[in-house]
Structure formats: structure tokens, C-alpha cells
Amino acid sequence: MSEEGLIVETHPALHGFLYDRGIDPQEAPTWRLFGSGELESTVDDSRVTVAITIDGETLMATVDSTGTVTSSSRTDR
Fold this sequence. Notes:
Elements: H1 3-9, H2 12-19, H3 30-33, E1 38-44, E2 47-54, E3 57-64, E4 69-76
Antiparallel strand pairs: 1-2, 2-3, 3-4
């Protein structure tokens, strides 16, 4: 998992995304979940967008150059 993925791993948006799928991030380490999902990173200027897809829905989170998640959104594919 990328450094950006690790930052997003602790963000409340990911925890909510997982809970909505019946996954308790306290019980199942999130790094194991991405074996059944999809994790992509896109670099754009001084930020990185991390997209995590599980069961056809995607959580996108933007991480700035300071390592802060500056935005997040969910989409259906």
C-alpha cells in the first residue's frame, strides 16, 4: 500500500465506507481488505487522489503535500 493509502486508512471517511459494507475496521485490518478490492493512486500537482473500490462503490480521497486528507467523496461505478 502506498504512503497515501496508509494516510487514508486512518481517515473517518474510509471507516464509514467500510462500516456501510458491514466491515468493522477494528476487527479486519484494512490492508487485508484491499486484496478483494481495488486501490489506485493518481498524482496531480502537489496532491494525490486515492481511489478505493469495494463491491462496485468507490471512495476517493485527496491527500495534499502535507499528508492531510483534504476531500473525500463516494461514487458508484
